[in-house]
Task: structure prediction
Amino acid sequence: MTRLPARPPSAATGPGWSPATWLLLVVLCGALFLDALDLSMVGVALPSIGSSLHLEAGSLQWIVSGYILGYGGLMLLGGRASDLLGRRRVFLTAVAVFGAASVVSALLSNDLALIALRFVKGASAAFTVPAGLSIITTTFAEGPARNRALSIYTVCGASGFSLGLVIGGLLTEVGWRVTFLVPGPVAIALVLVGLRVIPRGATERVRLNHFDLPGALTSTAALLILVYAVVDAPNRGWGSPATIGLLALSVALAGAFVAIERRHPRPLVRLGILRSRTLVHANLAAMAMFGGYSAFQFVVTLYVQNSLGWSPLSMALGFLPAGLLVALSSTRMGVVLGRVNTAWLIFFGLLALMSAYAWFLRTQPSMGYADFMLPTMLLLGVGFALTFPAVNAQATQGVADHEQGLASGLLNTSVQIGGAIVLAVVSAVLSSSGPANVHHKLLPGMTTAITIVVGISLVALVLTAAFLVQDRRRRLADVAAPALLPVD
Result:
């Protein structure tokens, strides 16, 4: 087979892309869409899974968290692997494993086995996403071409997560197992097309010690233990020796991870990259964005299906306006990213997300859809359409090609860490407040849970405002600096 060039000329030199370049983008966007779709579809199916397998909210959240933890816990290793082993090889292998795990998980009835397969699928996505994003950033030249490709790519991810609710609702009407099965054949089809269109790039000659396995193990274990401690705290007690011990162990493992990264010759995270203000800000904003939304969706799914009696399809259609707004914005976000400071896009995106959650606090069971949910969905659509592409573009700005995998891995790790932690906190609040199946009443602890989500979004908004102020001061100082130089 003839090797394709590492950078298609059409993508690098002009606004018109060749059919091969578009097909490459379809494969990469398709994998991200599938990753987000899978998580979203399963979210809709949670009440049906809980009814079928007799699981409470605290156990149900592990169906989501298992995927998120595999995703976030191994994302850094996935980014490093794509840089060392080759982005094409890592991407195609990970998508194939994702497809196989989808088919097998649809056949399972044991909750522990199901959660384990969800972790495997999340781990596969952890290798797919940084490889796919780094293929884009090394294929499309920095500037308008890359902004256009990134906007399409990231909006596809957001669209997958949003529209997955509708698709999940339709499939759950058939049976919750169908939501686990469908991604399998699609993933295999993407692999077959990807074999022909993804360019082969140069790879290093690698040995086992090139991979920072101790770093991967300590970071993943720290996350797993942290989430387990938070979820189990309502049962054991927040001040119990077991809870405090688990939280202390998580902190110790996180510290060990930092120590390993400082000494390892090929660390998962070159700590110097964290000196980039823009990258750190993008990661913090991404944590708040996805953490808040994943927790919000979890609460609303249980509320409208268990309390209000909506069907999975009705619930999915209720979320549809948000997905449509994100999808419709995809054609213009490339232009917007080229003209507007990404930090301002993040600011207004977070403001829209916070406003959406705050509006939902008004909810009462007697309210109609147009009053309590439609405004929230419209604001969520605006928030995601602005924030999702902006954090991705900001996180990779000015990063060298050989560290694009690391930068994208860090960003997506932050996304999943935010999702796992906030979801665990909200799940703990619901679990400690009473049974979730209360007909035509607010879920016990629901107001507290949504308030936590509003607070997290507010903190991120304040941090973004501080970033903008500091950025403006830096630019003014740079402008004033030449006037202070001595004249010969």
The two ends are 63 Å apart (CA to CA).
